[in-house]
Design brief:
483 residues; five-stranded mixed β-sheet
Length: 483
């Protein structure tokens, strides 16, 4: 085989592997959407907020400390996309899911020398930690912070080995600015910096902490009210964890996780494999990526999101590095063995993620109250009314289905945004697991314009209200008319 033909074959194999990896990620996402997948939480309220054109103060009964949007960047992106193609809420929701999934999964295909190692790592995670993979389809802006973690994992060693890593630091600062503007959890960037300290990478820490700090400042400036934004995000975090009697009263993702015991088997397996190959090196575990996994996993016992949003991205990056090392040792860079392994990894990823086990992708469709349905309108609040509800899931769905409705909600996407009196009533309801008498303070506050909307399998027995099942399991109560 002459050199020109060999070179052509190598380019063909390399291009085909890249297309397989990218096509697999796109196909995976489209197949999930094709099942009718419908996110059930914050993605709905982000879409509804954009379509409503309102501020949160016009949507929720908000405590005075919260005076600005917590995700201005994400709402700006959604608004820009909606203005560009004039789409409806379903298309905008699908865009949220597809765009954020691909933003997280596509770049590593290019920055690993063996992009298929990334696909293999995602496939392993789908088998061992499907809950983390599932969260990639939530269509929520926290995924941009997960992208920042991947960038940190990729750049730290380049900064370490480069005397003047200006390009890397500019990239890190820019992505930090976007993540701050879009997601807002800037204070959690201390976690990867702590990992650098544990790894004793003092020079890298100095460079990367400076770049991230600059990025946070730039991201805050993009909001238009930088000091208010930075303070509000800290205040939000402190209040969210400090304003409850028990952890079960927190939103589900702020509750502790179970430990993900399989992580020990997976990491242990790769380390033993290294030992068996005679390639053991203490630097496999003495590095910022591995320390970030340990930090996030440990803090997961405080709040599960430390595992899913911070430790898990670092873990699958670490696993991808290990798979890449194996493939570079045992397969030719342009050989057919590599091509076949890539095909196998891609197939496993598609099959493991997109199957509809337990209706995990198709089980979210339900009928919800809609202001445009004439028969349901009397059981929804009048203009200027309030929805009193005890379930954030209900808020997401009702707000998404009625984004421009002329009422507000007592409970929205986070209890600590509630006014002090409403929050006290809500905490009592939580503490007593929804006993009917705990709703009476809300009944006393209600006017004829208001409604209490609850999710119940049977008719609520809360005194003073007339009840009607608007849609299956969704009950609306209004003040009883005086005879």
């Amino acid at each position: 085989m002459n050199q020109a033909l060999l070179s052509h074959q190598q380019r063909l194999i390399r291009s085909f592997i890249l297309l397989m990896c990218l096509g697999t990620l796109l196909l995976t996402c489209l197949r999930v959407i094709g099942h009718g997948f419908f996110p059930i939480d914050d993605a709905l309220r982000h879409v509804a907020k954009v379509l409503s054109g309102k501020s949160w103060a016009d949507i929720l009964i908000v405590r005075p400390e919260f005076i600005m949007d917590s995700h201005p960047g994400w709402h700006a992106i959604l608004s820009g996309f909606q203005a560009l193609i004039k789409c409806d809420k379903t298309v905008l929701l699908n865009f949220s899911v597809i765009f954020l999934f691909l933003v997280f999964t596509v770049p590593p295909v290019f920055y690993f020398r063996r992009g298929e190692a990334w696909i293999a790592s995602l496939a392993l995670s789908a088998v061992f930690f499907f809950g983390a993979i599932y969260r990639l389809f939530y269509g929520r802006p926290y995924i941009t912070s997960m992208v920042l973690i991947l960038l940190f994992c990729f750049l730290w060693e380049k900064v370490k080995d480069n005397d003047k890593p200006w390009a890397e630091l500019i990239a890190l600062s820019a992505i930090t600015a976007l993540a701050t503007w879009i997601h807002g959890a800037w204070y959690l960037l201390t976690l990867p910096l702590l990992a650098l300290i544990l790894a004793r990478q003092w020079r890298v820490f100095l460079f990367m902490s400076s770049a991230m700090s600059l990025g946070v400042v730039c991201g805050a400036l993009l909001t238009g009210s930088p000091l208010v934004f930075l303070h509000q995000m800290i205040f939000h975090a402190l209040e969210a964890f400090g304003n409850s009697d028990f952890q079960r009263q927190l939103v589900s993702e702020f509750q502790p996780f179970s430990g993900e015991a399989l992580v020990f088997f997976l990491i242990g397996g790769f380390l033993l494999w290294r030992k068996a190959r005679g390639e053991w090196d203490i630097r496999l575990v003495d590095n910022p990526i591995f320390y970030l996994v340990v930090i996030g996993w440990t803090m997961g016992f405080f709040a599960g999101r430390f595992w899913t949003d911070w430790a898990w991205p670092a873990l699958i990056f670490w696993i991808a590095l290990e798979i890449q090392a194996v493939m570079e040792r045992y397969t030719d860079n342009f050989g057919w063995k590599r091509l076949m392994l890539t095909g196998m990894f891609c197939l496993i990823l598609v099959l493991s993620v997109t199957n509809d086990y337990g209706s995990r992708w198709s089980g979210g469709v339900a009928e919800w109250p809609n202001i445009e349905k004439e028969e349901q309108r009397p059981w929804l609040p009048d203009d200027g009314g309030i929805v009193y509800n005890d379930n954030m899931f209900l808020f997401y769905q009702v707000f998404y289905n009625n984004p421009q409705a002329p009422w507000r909600y007592a409970l929205g996407f986070e209890p600590i945004w509630m006014t002090a009196d409403n929050l006290k009533i809500f905490r009592d309801i939580q503490l007593n697991r929804g006993k009917d008498e705990n709703y009476i303070p809300w009944v006393k506050k209600m006017t004829p314009k208001d409604r209490m909307i609850l999710l119940r399998n049977g008719k609520p027995q809360i005194e003073g209200l007339e009840w009607h099942e608007v849609t299956p399991t969704v009950w609306s109560g209004k003040l009883e008319q005086k005879k």
